[in-house]
Amino acid sequence: MPLIAGIDIGNATTEVALARVEGRDVSFLSSALAPTSGIKGTLQNVAGLRRALGLALERAGFARDDFRKVDRIRLNKAAPVIGDVAMETVTETIITESTMIGHNPSTPGGVGVGVGVTTAFERLKEVHSGDVVVPVIPASVDYEHAAAGVADAMNRGVNVAAIICQADDGVLIANRLPRPVPIVDEVSSVDRVPLGMRCCVEVAPPGRVVELLANPYDIATIFDLSPEETRQIVPVARALVGNRSAVVIRTPLGEVRERRIPAGELYIIGPSGKRIVNVEEGAEAIMNMVKACQPVENIFGQPGTNVGGMMERVRKTMSNLTDIPLSDIYIRDLLAVDTLVPQKVVGGVAGEFSLESGVALAVMVKTEELPMQKLAKAIEADLGVTVEIGGVEADMAIRGALTTPGTKCPVAILDLGAGSSDASFMRQDGTVELIHLAGAGNMVNTIIMSELGIDDFDLAESIKRYPLCKVESVFHIRQEDGTVRFFDKPLDPEVFGRVALIHENDMLQPIRLNVTLEQVRNIRRKAKQEVFVTNAVRALEQVAPAHNVRLIDYVVLVGGSAVDFEVPTMITERLSRWGVVAGKGNIRGKEGPRNAVATGLVLSATGA
Length: 608
Fold this sequence. Notes:
By secondary structure, the protein is of the alpha/beta class. 28% of the residues lie in helices and 31% in strands.
């Protein structure tokens, strides 16, 4: 019996189903998966395919590199999906006439609000009695010397309103002063703090956050700002929300300037011609326009704008990888999600960030002829095995999903991967409606990275995949559902007091970010709702009879993202509003929701 390998090249993983096929008789021998190498649908996929197929051969009793035992490889048609973030307003510098320090040092000193003039520590001896000052202390001055100098000034009648220091000395200095004053420490660029300028320092009590400097009208009161200046100071107040300590300093006019790059317009071409939507109108307006232009023929952005640059980068990336001219690369679908993007504040001196509204975009790139034939020839040359293109993912997924016990036609399939969300609906007579939509697991990672201000894709993937906890002692944690869990052995001191992820086998991975458990959980769940649930409904509406989801009775969830610990529940809850029965598939009764496309590729070889 011929040995056939069905291979599904996805955005994140490459899955293999290995089987003996004779006529319509199929005997599955093994399955395997490995990380996809390179962007899906490109020549870079060969290395990942070799690893996955080798593992499947080994599990079937062959040598890992005995590829010539395989008579035929059947590949899926792969449509690449690339995600990026387009800001509503990209702000290089958002602060005018002010400098701010707004961070959360672990041990700020004192408490309260102090307003005075910034003064170099070495000039304190020259300050007269009655002057109101805020000493600025570099790390080169040790805490004992600093405390002695400030105490001497206080004893001479100088009104020391607050202190800014570079080293982690806030508490040490505060404990040695005649009276408490608010102290902000760990200011890395203390040399950039302007001297001789009016300054306000606020340190909140433990467990509280700053209130005065998080309110633009209070800042306006302190610095005697005009209505126009108050409008300009709003980004400062917004960036300080949630901090325990903060500093705002009035700087000379023109010292900090502002430059903005417009988000730009999206041009969506459909059967009725070109339609225009501005990215600043938000995700809902963009998606309404995409829906009105179905079927989408192409999407591109306004030249010279942020979104225009993003779209051009996507096209150039695909052109470089596939050697296909830019003119032959089209964007056929787009998913937009409103998000918040931390932007570095150039006017700050302690690494401050301000949250700017943004729109996360995932796009599906298609060419006039996908480079799958080139990939098939490269695999044939590398492995010495006949390779053929088996079919589109949504069609193959429904064939594989129907091997789930308890399923029958008519049925709808949702294939939730890393780059795309695919749906198919098979009628009683075996005819199939298919749709491929941009946006899935990688899009969730993009939003998590954006909103948490991280550039570590692996950390974002872990945050998406694993539940959270707060390590409250070396022997117990509080899980994200509020329950407390105890351990017989002490936990690693590295995780104590931190928010952590609970991996398999109870391994805890600390999240080294200044965020609460609730913040991370809310961002994770919102991202999944906006991507997976939105795309599930969007896809089913397009394949359902009369585009009415209520006319679908059963939905089977397959794909790598269907393994997620909360996505299937979210989709099931949403679809239950229309009386639709939904659940995770179990391919061939043993694979769970994975391997549907690979299994379908093998089954389609029988001609059934």
